Amino acid sequence: MTLEEVKRWTASRPTLADALGIEITAVGADYIEGRMPVDGRTHQPMGLLHGGASVAFAETLGSIAAATRVDRTKQATVGLEINANHLKGVRDGWVRGRATPVHVGRSTQVWEIRISHEETGALVCISRITMAVIDLPAAPPIPA
């Protein structure tokens, strides 16, 4: 999928990514990238980037990346597990994320997501998501 195709597909309905201000910025053969603001939408009460926002960002990137690897007319990808290590606090600006495949198989995919501060490049969070690849139900036959 191209960046424009991903943007059209993800813009088809409102999502958590919209509420958090997440933007997809690049799509390549072996990665997907995005960015997320660090502001009131993504802060925890002490004024730092909320760990849950980082995980939501990581899951957004990993889920979209996984979906680009299947025929979405026949299969879907759904999250099985996600983990995250929060390494550095961020108070403002933007964070950038990059999802890269660790394993892309017939029934599962594993993606690593690295989130860094846009301005300093400091690694903020590293996450890994495991996705299941499931078959969509076949369309019912058309009656004669």
Radius of gyration, in angstroms, nearest whole number: 16 Å
Strand portion, in percent?
Answer: 35-45%
Report the helical percentage.
10-25%
Strand/helix succession = HHEEHEEEE
Q: What's the shape?
A: elongated
Could you list some keywords that capture this structure?
144 residues
Task: Compile the SSE list and pairings.
Elements: H1 3-10, H2 16-20, E1 23-28, E2 31-38, H3 51-67, E3 75-86, E4 93-104, E5 108-117, E6 123-135
Antiparallel strand pairs: 1-2, 2-4, 3-6, 4-5, 5-6
Structure description:
27% of the residues are buried. The longest helix has 17 residues. This protein is of the alpha+beta class and 144 residues long. A 6-stranded antiparallel sheet has the order 1-2-4-5-6-3. The protein has a single domain, classed as Thiol Ester Dehydrase, Chain A (Roll), CATH 3.10.129.10. It is elongated, with a radius of gyration of 16 Å.
Question: How would you concisely characterize the structure shown here?
Answer:
The chain is built from 3 helices and 6 strands; from the N terminus they run ααββαββββ. It is of the alpha+beta class.
